[in-house]
């Protein structure tokens, strides 16, 4: 029987530390980190993520502002909002919830965010720093995954890691971070042939494709570590990309959905907001 890595429990501990740090920062600087979140449109999943981020900020004693815009906003108007937030000395983190409506160029918007306030770590300069192994704001989901792995002292050096999914938000950065910690990394994706044989070789599987039952128990080596990043709604329930119930008896460690990577993503965002605040204040 594998051990479940609870993102919910780990998040509780870390968010308590973040809260403590925020109160120290308030003592030192007379103000607290302030995250501004921009949400365009009415996608229910995005609305729910943004509410979760706002609630977590408030509970950690940080300020948060949510700027809601309907999906008729023009690219120029959105860029102007970013420009205003960049200049506002009382805003330390800027997050534009993705995806954006089709008529807006996501790259232009991300490029416009002041890198010092890029709490998502999506700005190309932050991405470059991460790829170079330099000091960088790390994207929240990959950072949360690494925090979960470290919390159990799971050895990465020399291990075979298989990442399923090649997104800019999860797959690619997770691959870089695991490689930095000396894992041998394979990235699989929608065109990969014979996913099963690649899974069976893996000591660590990170599933981030957004399709239920992508990883089934016959694809998992005994004692493997399985990190499930998927969030899928099936018959009104949230499930991941892995067949959790069957795999948990075979894996050494497994993350649940819900209560796994999801809460860790928000926790990492809180840490990143504190980090951006500290960097800005020290300038
Ligand atoms: N949409 C899905 N995940 C994310 C994320 O981590 N950050 C932002 N900004 N949008 C997202």
Structure characteristics:
single chain, 283 residues, alpha/beta, Rossmann fold, 2 domains, 6-stranded parallel beta sheet, 3-stranded parallel beta sheet, 10 helices, binds guanine
Outline the fold blueprint.
Layout: E1 3-4, H1 7-29, E2 34-40, H2 44-59, E3 63-69, H3 75-87, E4 93-96, H4 106-112, H5 124-131, H6 140-151, E5 160-164, H7 171-180, E6 184-188, H8 195-201, E7 204-207, E8 225-228, E9 232-234, E10 237-239, H9 244-247, E11 253-254, H10 261-282
Parallel strand pairs: 1-11, 2-3, 2-4, 5-6, 5-7, 7-8, 8-11
Antiparallel strand pairs: 9-10
Helix pairs in contact: 1-10, 2-10, 6-7, 6-10
Description:
The chain is an alpha/beta fold. The chain folds into two domains: 29-114, 3-Layer(aba) Sandwich (Rossmann fold), CATH 3.40.50.10860; 140-262, Rossmann fold. Helices cover 43% and strands 16% of the residues. The chain has ten helices and eleven strands. The strands form three sheets. A six-stranded parallel sheet has the order 1-11-8-7-5-6, sandwiched between helices. Helix 1 packs parallel to helix 10 (261-282), helix 6 packs across helix 7 and helix 6 (140-151) packs across helix 10 (261-282). The radius of gyration is 19 Å and the shape is globular. The N and C termini lie far apart (50 Å). The mean pLDDT is 98. Bound molecules: guanine (GUN). Residues 95-98, 120, 140-141, 169 line the site of guanine.
């Amino acid at each position: 029987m594998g051990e479940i890595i609870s993102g919910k429990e780990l998040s509780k501990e870390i968010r308590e530390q973040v809260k403590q740090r925020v109160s120290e920062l308030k003592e030192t600087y007379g103000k607290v980190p302030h995250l501004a979140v921009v949400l365009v449109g009415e996608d229910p999943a995005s609305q729910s993520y943004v509410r979760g981020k706002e609630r977590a900020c408030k509970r950690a004693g940080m300020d948060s502002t949510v700027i809601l815009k309907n999906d008729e906003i023009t690219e120029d108007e959105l860029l102007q909002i970013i420009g205003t937030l960049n200049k506002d000395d009382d805003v330390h983190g800027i997050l534009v919830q993705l995806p954006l409506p089709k008529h807006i160029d996501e790259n232009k918007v991300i490029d416009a965010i002041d890198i010092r306030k890029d709490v998502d770590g999506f700005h190309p300069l932050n991405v470059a720093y991460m790829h170079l192994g330099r000091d960088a704001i790390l994207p929240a989901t990959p950072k949360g995954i690494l925090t979960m792995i470290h919390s159990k002292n799971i050895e990465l050096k020399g291990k075979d890691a298989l990442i399923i999914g090649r997104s800019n938000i999860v797959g690619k950065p997770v691959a870089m971070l695991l490689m930095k910690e000396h894992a041998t990394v394979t990235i699989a994706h929608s065109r990969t042939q014979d996913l099963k044989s690649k899974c069976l070789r893996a000591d660590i599987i990170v599933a981030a494709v957004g399709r239920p039952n992508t990883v089934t128990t016959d694809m998992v080596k005994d004692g493997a570590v399985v990190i499930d990043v998927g969030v899928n709604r099936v018959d009104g329930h949230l499930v991941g990309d892995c067949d959790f119930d069957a795999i948990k008896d075979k894996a050494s460690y497994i993350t649940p959905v819900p209560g796994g990577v999801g809460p860790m993503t928000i926790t990492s965002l809180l840490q990143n907001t504190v980090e951006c605040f500290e960097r800005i204040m020290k300038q």
